[in-house]
Specification:
heterotrimer; A alpha+beta (about 140); B alpha+beta (about 180); C alpha/beta (about 575); A: about 140 residues; alpha+beta; N-terminal domain of TfIIb; 3 domains; three-stranded antiparallel sheet; 3 helices; 7 strands; about 25% helix; about 20% strand; C: Dimethylsulfoxide Reductase, domain 2; Rossmann fold; Barwin-like endoglucanases; six-stranded mixed β-barrel; five-stranded parallel sheet
Chain lengths: ~140, ~180, ~575
């Protein structure tokens, strides 16, 4: 077993703790989370930092991991169907474009995410809302 | 002197990281690999919260354990300064849980084993100071506020000396305080 | 936060206001404990006997919803007893005379009935805060989740300004941000009024800068805040209606107030797009679902609560059978398909675009983040010697045009929905230490689920439990004007009899069925900390227990889990 160590930032609260993950590289599996020395956490972690990572293996306790793009080909009320990325992207782009052309860019609302995706994804999302759609209707769950 | 893990209510924030660490230490990391319902979640300590106190409560590893004295089946024994339960010998009579003055023993269903009548077999369950595990008590190791410590005889001596000193200071004239 | 988390333990006095660090950020609470150990005094303001209250030198157990009355009263005492830092006020602030006038009517005696705090304790708190020489305010959702929230923040800032507790080590005011990257989403301009780096969309020169960088004309109209989406879907005129909702890494059908209204608006929308790692309650209403990589499966940067940029790294690959993309890649591809091409090869390329557009972030390069791990903005220079800024407002310089801090003179206003005959109790939400947000992540973690699971608890004073005839662990029904849910009774004398508390993580004990969508006019944050409710005993406990089990099964089924197949080892 080749054990790789990767340091990252905890995704469970604003404290920004540094975690060192030990990973079984061949199996592509996390083995454990160890506190790392960070400015805010000083080599300590709470229960979410220590034990909050096995969701990634899709244990299906509360919800199921999304593994393929899904669309309702038949419109509202029709079932969600698995489709290719190409179809999902072109469908989404077409529907958004139609709504934008019919009702204007301000009829579309986008969200950022204050959770796992990270700053770069938020930047791209607000750029998409502002430059591609043409609206400042972008916000996130900071208030929630 | 037997060692024991002691919690400090002034440092404890009631987060229960210790509670999970206890289970992981005893069940092993296999937890992450198996069916989410395929292991027992039976912590050997309990974080209590009252108006003024939050602190984990666990076995004090008494020098003359009441639990051991009342055990009819010799399931409770002391090894290397640690009070332990032999699960094979335990008949589940609950006398030890009743005798423990700290509420540190509880009865838990043992794995997925059953009694002859089909009911799940319950045994006495308590802190074993992570007996035989590398690194000592897991609860102490993970506590983010260092609220838990493993008290050895020299620690106890130090604690007592400090307390005696404090008593002396509060009992004396306030000037002594200032001089110190 | 004006100051760093690592500074907390060096403060001489911590004024902890509506902030329960032990449950929301144990690792920040650790600093409060350490401060106490190092000899700091602690004042805790909270309607509950939270962990910080236990170790505090003074606990002001105020009545829910009386925040600004108390804050203004503390200012009253500071003025009355001559404890102001006159030099700091003179040199670094404006608007003090008006504020002084306002405070006159907030004597501790005058606010005694509103706050339920003894006047002597208010005086004591004011003296402790004003005279320690190094006082730091920490606040949380107990300040922000009210219809009067921003004004309380301004009130707390007043206290720091009038006592000169700004611009030094271990002072200032610290909103300890809840979710891991709230600070980052704000930093990146996922806000209706600002581009990345807090650059306002209505300022022509700034807009021109972004138009040039992005190569298209941009809207000068401030956008709609998230919490007003139901209103814009259901009640606005045809011309102004929201028709499409692109939800990214969120679950409004669980996290937003007044869930019945949220569900109605999701049903009415022409197009709902959900981009997430797990199926969630919003997914039920989605027309498109775009699966993305999770935390630990992608690279990037997070911003922690005290402005600290830190790297996140790809720890593992997504599972082999998961046909998922990174969030930025999905959005870029949709953008390109819509005729606005976006093409990035990695997160560093995106980050470099960000920092070059934001003067306060410019120095926080990946190279420096690699070397220093954590860089607090402002960090303006790319040179290795600029390691960021631990505390803001050095030398009393503030971000206003005159460089001075501005006193705000605002009166207390009561919460929106008060207790009444039908709903005699105050209902407030709070946090479960072992779970996170809408629980799509932590609810799928084995051990966190073992520690606490559905349907959660309602904290009730033992006297109230006795009056209602409910015991520890019994299922009870909690009802407000807008909805109801079922949860377990947790008797505790850490709460007063007039108020009950539920953690907001649960899907069966979903407290947002009850909460009110009354928003702060500036921040648009809902009043999660106050509405009226009643608690009812459920006579048939066996029925209630089976109801909870069945509900849990229904939820899991609707989230795509095939229960019949049973769980298999993974």
């Amino acid at each position: 077993m080749t054990i790789k160590e990767v340091q990252t930032t905890c995704a469970y609260c604003g404290a920004g703790c540094q975690i060192l993950f030990k990973v079984d590289q061949e199996q592509n599996k996390i083995l454990e989370a160890v506190p790392a020395p960070g400015r805010t956490n000083d080599g300590t972690l709470c229960l979410k930092g220590h034990y909050g990572w096995d969701y990634i293996n899709d244990p299906q306790i509360l919800t199921k991991r999304l593994k393929n793009p899904l669309i309702r080909r038949g419109g509202k009320g029709a079932p969600l169907e698995e489709v290719s990325w190409d179809e999902a992207i072109s469908y989404t782009a077409r529907r958004l474009t139609e709504i934008k052309e019919k009702h204007g860019p301000d009829s579309i609302m986008c969200t950022g995410s204050a959770r796992g995706p990270g700053n770069e994804a938020n930047y791209v999302m607000q750029k998409f809302a502002r430059a591609a759609i043409g609206t400042n209707n972008v916000d996130h769950c900071a208030r929630i | 002197m037997n060692r024991y893990v002691q919690g400090d209510p002034l440092l404890c924030i009631g987060c229960r990281t210790c509670t999970i660490a206890c289970v992981v230490a005893h069940e092993g990391k296999r937890i992450y690999e198996i069916d989410p319902d395929g292991y027992d979640f039976h912590p050997r300590l309990k974080v209590i919260k009252t108006f003024n106190v939050s602190v984990p409560v666990q076995c004090k590893h008494c020098e003359n354990p009441a639990c051991k004295a009342v055990c009819q089946s010799q399931a409770i024994y002391v090894q290397d300064g640690t009070v332990l339960v032999d699960r094979e010998k335990c008949i589940g009579c609950k006398s030890c849980a009743d005798a423990c003055p700290f509420g540190a023993i509880r009865m838990v269903p043992l794995g997925f084993e059953t009694n002859p009548d089909g009911t799940r077999r319950s045994v006495a369950h308590k802190c074993d100071l992570c007996f035989g595990l590398e690194g000592g008590p897991a609860c102490k190791r993970v506590c983010p506020t260092e609220a838990l410590r493993l008290v050895e005889s020299e620690d106890l001596a130090e604690m007592l000396a400090l307390k005696r000193g404090n008593v002396l200071l509060t009992a004396s004239a306030p000037e002594i305080n200032r001089v110190n | 936060m004006s100051n760093g988390v690592h500074e907390i333990e060096d403060s001489k006095l911590l004024f902890v206001f509506g902030y329960n660090g032990a449950d929301s950020h144990p690792i920040v609470a650790r600093r409060i404990v350490r401060a106490k150990r190092k000899g700091a005094q602690i004042i805790c303001v909270d309607p509950r006997r939270i962990e910080t209250a236990r170790i505090a030198d003074l606990h002001l157990q105020l009545k829910n919803g009386s925040n600004l009355a108390l804050v203004n009263s503390i200012a009253h005492v500071i003025i009355e007893e001559g404890l102001c830092d006159d030099k700091f006020i003179e040199e670094h602030s404006s608007g003090f005379d008006e504020f002084k006038e306002l405070c006159k009517k907030y004597s501790p005696e005058a606010v005694k009935d509103i706050t339920q705090i003894h006047p002597d304790d208010i005086r004591k708190a004011a003296r402790m805060y004003a005279t320690s020489g190094q006082s730091m305010i920490l606040y949380g959702m107990g300040v922000c989740q009210f219809a009067q929230a921003v004004n309380v923040v301004k009130g707390l800032a007043n206290l720091a300004i009038m006592t000169g507790n700004f611009g030094r080590w271990a002072v200032g005011i610290g909103p300890v941000r809840g979710q891991n990257n709230v600070q980052g989403a704000c930093d990146m301009g996922a806000l209706p009024n600002s581009y990345p780096g807090y650059q306002n969309v209505t300022v022509p020169e700034i807009r021109a800068k972004f138009e040039k960088a992005w190569g298209v004309p941009l809207s000068d109209k401030v956008g709609i805040p998230l919490t007003q989406v139901p209103h814009y879907v259901l009640h606005e005129s045809e011309a102004k209606k929201i028709r499409a909702y692109y939800v990214f890494g969120e679950d409004p059908a669980q996290s937003d107030p007044d869930l019945a209204e949220v569900r109605e608006s999701l049903e009415k929308l022409e197009l709902v797009i959900l981009q997430d790692i797990y199926m969630n309650r919003t997914g039920i209403y989605a027309d498109v679902i775009l699966p993305s990589t999770g935390w630990n499966e992608h690279d990037g940067v997070f911003s922690c609560c005290d402005r600290g940029f830190q790297r996140i790294r790809k720890v593992v690959n997504p599972p082999a059978d998961a046909n998922v993309l990174t969030d930025w890649e999905i959005i870029s591809r949709i953008s390109t398909a819509m005729g606005y091409p976006m093409k990035y090869d990695n997160t560093e390329e995106i980050w470099n675009e960000v920092i070059d557009l934001c003067p306060s972030f410019t120095g926080a390069t990946y190279e420096k983040l690699e070397k220093y791990v954590n860089i607090q903005w402002p960090c303006r220079s790319k040179g290795m010697e600029d390691k960021g800024t631990s505390f803001l407002h050095k030398d009393g310089k503030f971000a206003n045009p005159d460089g001075k801090a501005k006193f705000s003179s605002i009166d207390w206003q009561p919460p929106t929905e008060l207790e009444n005959d039908e709903f005699p109790l105050i209902f407030s939400t709070n946090r479960e230490v072992g779970h996170y947000s809408v629980r799509t992540m932590s609810g799928n973690c084995r051990l966190l689920r073992n520690l606490e699971d559905e349907p959660g608890w309602i904290q009730m004073n033992p006297e109230l439990c006795e009056e209602l005839g409910v015991k520890h662990g019994e299922l009870v029904k909690v009802i407000s004007k807008r909805g109801h849910c079922v949860t377990r009774c947790l008797p505790t004398d850490r709460v007063k009899k007039q108020a009950v508390y539920m953690t907001y993580q649960w899907w069966i004990g979903a407290c947002n069925e009850l909460t009110i969508a009354s928003l702060d006019p500036i921040s648009n944050t809902p009043e999660y900390k106050y509405c009226a409710c009643r608690v009812e005993k459920i006579e048939d406990q066996a029925w209630a227990e089976s109801y909870v089990l069945k509900e849990y099964e229904n939820i899991r089924r609707s989230m795509g889990i095939e229960l019949e197949k049973g769980r298999k080892a993974i």
